[in-house]
Design goal:
The complex is a heterodimer of chains A (110) and B (118). Chain A is an all-beta fold and 110 residues long. Chain A has no helices and eleven strands. In chain A, strands 2, 4, 5, 6, 9, 10 and 11 form a seven-stranded mixed β-sheet that branches. Chain A has a four-stranded antiparallel β-sheet with strand order 1-3-8-7, with no helix packed on it. In chain B, strands 2, 4, 5, 6, 9, 10 and 11 form a seven-stranded mixed β-sheet that branches. In chain B, strands 1-3-8-7 form a four-stranded antiparallel β-sheet, with no helix packed on it. The chains are: A mainly beta (110), B mainly beta (118). The interface between A and B is medium-sized, with 27 and 26 residues.
């Protein structure tokens, strides 16, 4: 079974920078997994931030950026704002129509 | 503007069945894959099923394979999830999502709660 791991939590100061990562239990994440990133606040539907590693979804501020760092996918928030306080999930495409979400990272801005 | 409006959730007994619907508007429905994701209380997101635009290919997570059936009616712009042999662990908020340009979601439904309990 494929497990996609994310940091459980991160704290960042307003205006600061934080990088969340998304790794595979076995192997490296590459662009071939088409990593995407989603933001979710409690009680709300997810919001798409990044698709295909580093493409920003419509309306997403440019303080959110995606990349591959080493053997993981990464989401960087540059100049964090209070309303960035949310849960963040990555998703990988495993092929043959199958997807898997990461375990999620709770980001606190304080 | 893209809208995905979900319906059909509720309380069902273990072993029972339920059908979720996701009515789409604002885009050419038949041209896009559609998917279902769920979130158990206090837990993370779980992809559970997908279907291509034509409806001829479907995909499932192991956790629901053989019990859930995804389908679509492109004449009605509606996505469905037929859930059978429901278990307590299927209790979750279920979201439908529109397939994005490359193996992602770009729009989401509002979510609907399914509770499996006696």
């Amino acid at each position: 079974q494929t497990v996609v791991t994310q940091e459980p939590s991160f704290s960042v100061s307003p205006g600061g920078t934080v990088t969340l990562t998304c790794g595979l239990s076995s192997g490296s994440v590459s662009t071939s997994y088409y990593p995407s990133w989603y933001q979710q606040t409690p009680g709300q539907a997810p919001r798409t931030l990044i698709y295909s590693t580093n493409s920003r979804s419509s309306g997403v501020p440019d303080r959110f950026s995606g990349s591959i760092l080493g053997n993981k996918a990464a989401l960087t928030i540059t100049g964090a704002q209070a309303d960035d306080e949310s849960d963040y999930y990555c998703m990988l495409y495993l092929g043959s129509g199958i997807f898997v979400f990461g375990t999620g990272t709770k980001v606190t801005v304080l | 503007e893209v809208h995905l409006l979900q319906s059909g959730g509720g309380l069902v007994q273990p072993g029972g069945s339920l059908r979720l619907s996701c009515a789409a508007s604002g885009f050419t429905f038949s041209g896009y894959a559609m998917r279902w994701v769920r979130q158990a209380p206090g837990k993370g997101l779980e992809w559970i099923s997908g279907i291509i635009g034509s409806g001829t290919s479907t995909f499932y997570a192991d956790s629901v394979k053989g019990r859930f059936t995804i389908s679509r009616d492109n004449s009605k712009n509606t996505l469905y999830l037929e859930m059978n042999s429901l278990r307590a662990e299927d209790t979750a908020v279920y979201y439908c999502g529109k397939g994005g340009s490359t193996y992602s979601f770009d729009y989401w439904g509002q979510g609907i709660l399914v509770t499996v309990s006696s």
